[in-house]
Design goal:
The structure is a homodimer. Chain A is mainly alpha-helical. Chain A is 71% helix and 0% strand. The N and C termini of chain A lie far apart (37 Å).
């Protein structure tokens, strides 16, 4: 019976996976999404320092940050496979999956716009696109991240 | 005197940084590079499973894996700032920095070629490009990663 349950749980876990990401163990999925968020946050922070006049504006660096941010924003969602719980992740991520996916898509969309702004080399455009992106981080953290 | 040394170490750390990445604390740099390697390894593993006939070939997935791999390969080097030691990192990374940078560049180059191969949708090309990339991982791990 236990074996059957385990097999069923495994099937359920894989059914929940997008084609791009399959993880051998739940902890791999957790480490993957945490790694992606960490790298993303670094480049977002770098853009934020420039957008908020806390670091000198460097157009090449901003464009590179934006590119990495937009690419990385698409990744962490795949790491929230069934059973891959963590201290930071509220269970609502799985019980309110549609809402979580929507907030994740909001991040992907805002990060894409911020990357476009960063590519322009125009600090005013970056300043305009930074706030909306930061709001998508906060909206999801408020709802789905353990304090 | 201690304060002077700390300030000097800080200046040295920032002098060693490429423009793209500045870290408030050494541990941020460690977490950044480890996160980047983790995400990179996942997508490399996904490509490897297909290249070694251990997973069904999915051209779209392979192309996406290659794209992420090539983008991520460029990131971790920036996290090896002066003073950002870790259990996995041998001190030679800093004392033989030129050699380390060369092996890192080998990865960037091989990952770029693997991404091109993956984009072609031709499994034979992926198989041909996978081994050389794996060799760049091993060459650097043998030299610079603690066992």
């Amino acid at each position: 019976m236990n074996k059957m349950l385990t097999a069923a749980a495994l099937v359920a876990a894989f059914a929940a996976l997008p084609a791009q990401a399959q993880f051998a163990k739940a902890e791999d999925a957790v480490a993957y999404r945490q790694g992606a968020y960490r790298v993303l946050a670094h480049h977002f922070g770098s853009l934020g320092a420039m957008a908020n006049d806390k670091a000198p504006f460097d157009a090449a660096r901003a464009a590179a940050d934006g590119e990495v941010l937009a690419a990385l924003a698409k990744l962490p969602a795949a790491g929230f496979v069934a059973g891959a719980e963590s201290k930071a992740a509220k269970p609502a991520i799985w019980t309110e999956a549609d809402k979580f996916k929507q907030l994740d898509q909001d991040l992907v969309s805002a990060a894409g716009k911020l990357a476009e702004a960063a590519k322009s080399g125009d600090l005013a455009q970056i300043k305009a696109a930074f706030g909306p992106t930061a709001k998508t981080c906060k909206a999801c953290h408020d709802e789905f991240r353990q304090k």
